[in-house]
Design a protein that fits this description.
With about 400 residues, the chain is an alpha+beta fold. The chain contains 16 helices and 13 strands. The chain is about 35% helix and about 20% strand. The strands form three sheets. Strands 5-4-6-7-11-12-3-13 form an eight-stranded mixed beta sheet. Strands 8-9-10 form a three-stranded antiparallel beta sheet, with helices on one face. A two-stranded antiparallel ribbon has the order 1-2. A hairpin with a 4-residue loop joins strand 9 and strand 10. The structure holds flavin-adenine dinucleotide. Flavin-adenine dinucleotide binds next to helix 5, strand 4, strand 6 and strand 11. The site of flavin-adenine dinucleotide has 34 residues, from helix 5, strand 4, strand 6 and strand 11.
Length: about 400
């Protein structure tokens, strides 16, 4: 890849090309205009083409990868191949409270590490030296896994950390958004070490990862200069939680439930609008927020989980008393994300007919509920936030009109 323009606006910013590039000629850098990561040629390119072959932005053969991973085409074209669905939460109340939803991603990783089933996990924390910069890394201790808890609503080139998995033998888990998991699956087809060493793929359900412009906007709302930020957490503090910014002066500023207003859609990168994979269909397990009526009163957090491979792990974690788990109907999981999945599968350009299958009929009432989501949003109190919410809702409504059509 001579430069990012070879992939153009199809780049997801996942970082797979950078980790796999044999002459190490690529680096992920922020495109300041767009506020997203892109690969930049910084060394000598040998024209091997590996970067383009592992790029999920250029295209993902979902049929082929489903056959490779699960041995069959998807059971359900909206959820993907799955074994069962659950609602779960960690029994470590602090972890649960500090994580995004129920702390289940972190809890699964802690179990795998403590049982010796993995030697490390690819996760993402915010860089302690540069607090607004996400830092993907291989966590090798429980403390490091816990440090990485919580969703990062900004671009994350997580797959740059695949380089360490290629270089250091061991068994690994990876945590990523759908585009990260797609890149990893494509890279595994080419690279035997990745195929053998990555033993668990944990997928984060994702509508989109907002550009860095979103973080700038939120800091502006709070009246904080980026240079004054000492630490930022996009989620945590109970469910559904909110943004927490710590300034160099020691001030703590909070913005509750800011994403629920549809805010993120104002800062959705173009590439996310083309993505057909909301549920991280190529992962072994997917994790989501429980956006369902029955969880409206929830304050501590619960994670919706779709198990696709290795289903026994969850039962083992439960038997050790590390989490509480209940079954939930797949249709409820679908309903919790219905508007977003439907947008991705039906409306998005590339999403159209990835499996050449008909879309299942959707109950009109379910469709209506999906449109009037998010119902968990509480109107922020500050006047400025009301303006902001008003504009965000307008943008959100505009996007929802597509759903009606
Ligand atoms: C950008 C983004 C969009 C999302 N969109 C939706 C949605 O539309 N609907 C929905 O139901 N849920 C969505 N989620 C998922 C939700 O926010 C939680 O991540 C999920 O419920 C798991 O919660 P948890 O408490 O089990 O995770 P935790 O235990 O808090 O662990 C989260 C893990 O994810 C990793 N991680 C966090 N952010 C990123 C990132 N940007 N890239 C790669 N790895 C990351 C962390 O390193 C950590 O290991 C989204 C998450 C993100 C990051």
């Amino acid at each position: 890849m001579r430069n990012a323009s070879e992939v153009g606006d199809l780049c997801t910013g996942c970082g797979t090309c950078t980790a796999l590039c044999p002459p190490r000629a690529l680096e992920m850098r922020v495109n300041e205009k767009k506020g997203v990561y892109e690969p930049v040629l910084t060394g000598e390119c040998n024209d091997c083409g590996v970067c383009l072959r592992v790029c999920p932005g250029l295209g993902v053969d979902f049929r082929k990868l489903n056959m490779e991973i699960f041995g069959r085409e998807p059971d359900d074209i909206l959820l993907g191949n799955y074994e069962a669905c659950y609602v779960a939460h960690s029994t470590d109340e602090k972890l649960r409270y500090d994580s995004s939803s129920g702390g289940m991603v972190t809890q699964v990783l802690l179990y795998l590490l403590e049982e010796g089933l993995i030697d490390g996990a690819l996760v993402t924390r915010m860089n302690p030296e540069k607090p607004l910069e996400p830092e993907p890394f291989i966590a090798r201790t429980p403390e490091e896994i816990i440090e990485a808890r919580g969703s990062k609503y900004c671009p994350v080139p997580a797959n740059v950390a695949l380089r360490e998995i290629i270089e250091v033998p061991g068994r690994y888990a990876v945590v990523g958004l759908p585009c990260h998991i797609q890149g990893i699956r494509k890279a595994e087809l080419l690279n035997r070490k990745l195929r053998e060493r990555i033993v668990y793929h944990l997928g984060i359900v994702c509508n989109h990862a907002p550009s860095f412009k979103a973080t700038e906007f939120l800091l502006g709302m709070l009246g904080v200069e980026p240079g004054d930020v000492k630490g930022i957490r996009y989620r945590g503090g109970g469910w559904p939680g909110g943004l927490r910014v710590e300034t160099e002066d020691g001030e703590i500023l909070l913005l509750p439930e800011y994403w629920g207003s549809g805010f993120g859609q104002l800062f959705m990168p173009d590439r996310c609008q083309m993505c057909p994979d909301h549920m991280a269909e190529l992962s072994d397990m997917s994790f989501a927020d429980p956006w369902l009526r029955e969880f409206n009163g929830e304050t501590q957090g619960k994670t919706l989980m779709v198990t696709r491979k290795n289903p026994k792990i969850l039962d083992k974690i439960r038997k050790k008393g590390l989490c509480e788990v209940e079954s939930i109907e797949p249709s409820r999981v679908l309903l919790s994300q219905l508007y977003n999945i439907y947008m991705k599968k039906k409306v998005n350009m590339i999403g159209e007919n990835i499996y050449n299958a008909e879309f299942p009929p959707i109950d009109p009432m379910d469709r209506l509920i999906a449109i009037i989501r998010p119902r968990n949003t509480k109107m922020p109190r500050k006047l400025t936030l009301k303006y902001f919410t008003f504009y965000a809702i307008l943008a959100s409504l505009k996007a929802r009109m597509d759903f009606f059509r």
